[in-house]
Amino acid sequence: MSKPLSDHDRKKQISVRGLAGVENVAELKLAFNRHLHFTLVKDRNVASKRDYYFALANTVRDHLVGRWIRTQQYYYEKDPKRVYYISLEFYMGRTLQNTMVNLALENACDEAVYQLGLDMEELEDMEEDAGLGNGGLGRLAACFLDSMASLGLAAYGYGIRYEFGIFNQKIVKGWQVEEADDWLRYGNPWEKARPEYMRPVKFYGRTEHTPDGVKWVDTQVVLALPYDTPIPGYRNNIVNTMRLFKVFADYEAYIKCQDKVNELYKNPKEWTKMVIHNIAGCGKFSSDRTISQYAREIWGVEPSLEKIPAPDEQLK
Questions:
Q1: Most buried by CB count within 10 Å: which residue of 93, 145, 189, 265?
Q2: Strand-strand pairing, 155-160 and 239-248
Q3: Which residue from 243, 247, 165, 242 is spatially nearest to 203, judged by alpha carbons?
Q4: pLDDT tens per residue, range 63-81
Q5: CA 227, CA 160: separation in Å to the nearest integer?
Q6: CA atoms within a 13 Å half-sphere pointing along the CA-CB vector of 23
Q7: Which GO BP terms, alphabetically (predicted)?
Q8: Which helix (H) or strand (E) covers residue 182, if one does?
């Protein structure tokens, strides 16, 4: 009588979701290895499960980009009425599995990952939750975006790209402990930064009447950098856009620092002096310290200073 399979052994079996075409599987495997090597600069000897997840995510994303561009071209040509959904929260969750289902790639990806000797569930678990909200409202906004894309509506989501998500929960001695959810610490393969559309946004201040009209003065300025994320519809080749803005609160300090650099660059003598000083300082606090620390902690010896004679002294 055969021994019952463990959960781990069952995961290694071929996918039962459906049989994928051989051509699709071969193409996905090639794209997976290409991203592992050229996007992540890793090979199978050093790659981690997270690296494999990123390789798979970038492979699936390749199938999104063409549809995404064609969708935006269609909206531009036909000029339909557009929906702009503005929300402080977008609880999008994990994107990989949802995208594979919507693009009808789930079966082929399952088979490709299996043939590569990897576990699909383990790779899916490596993705960070994009928990940009407190629950209900953010999840409702995410469902609206998915639904509008599936219905073929020309819709856009606008919100804030929070640096931290809702929270991570742990149970310590029977009590709930909340920790910051640093969901971006490993990067996000689904978003595309758009620095060319960065905009200053003004807060506070006052209005001032002048001969040229009313002006808004004494404001606090922040910089908003947009990041675009594709939102695919369910098997209809429609991919809408969610645009989240990353906020830089020290915009004015950045401008002042940049002005100072520009002025310094106009003085070649002073600029050269600062560059040499910078390089000399880097050497002192990086290479010298590293070598000394390595000698003490790894070799267990104290470094000693040796005077090296100048070339002309050696000839004497």
A1: 145
A2: parallel
A3: 247
A4: 999 999 999 999 999 999 9
A5: 9
A6: 0
A7: glycogen catabolic process
A8: none
